[in-house]
Amino acid sequence: MKKKRVTHSGFTLIEIIVTLTVAAILSVILVQFMGTSISRSVAPTLSMQEGMTLQGIFENMNADYKRLLLVDSTPLATFKSRVESGYYGSYTVSQSEYIEFDTSQSEVACTSSPSECRVLKVAISLGDHSLVELFTR
């Protein structure tokens, strides 16, 4: 009878240990290199979301002001009170005042009565973003 040769299939214990050790060292290097960028990867998404939310608030303001122009006798005054009261959502009003332009086209505060002022400057902010818009009648 012939002796059967034993053939080894698979990995030896030393090969498995060396492979696991090398994989552990490489993963530690990868975590050190990518750790901070992975933990802050949500920041651009949140920033974009704040900017788009702010843009949506202004879109709602524009739509409402266009409607007020058709149905309200003092649309600019009504709109100003709505902006300052937070009627359009969650935002911080940085500026909400009547302005006019002097002869050199520079912006100055409107010194007339509010019913005679024709331009309202609205600046709102949300997080790190802010937008400014002029509303006229």
TrEMBL record:
The chain crosses the membrane at residues 12-35. InterPro entries: N_methyl_site, Pilin-like. The keyword Transmembrane applies. PROSITE patterns: PROKAR_NTER_METHYL. Coiled coil: none annotated. The keyword Zinc does not apply. Keywords: Membrane, Transmembrane, Transmembrane helix. This is Prepilin-type N-terminal cleavage/methylation domain-containing protein. It comes from Desulfosarcina ovata subsp. ovata.
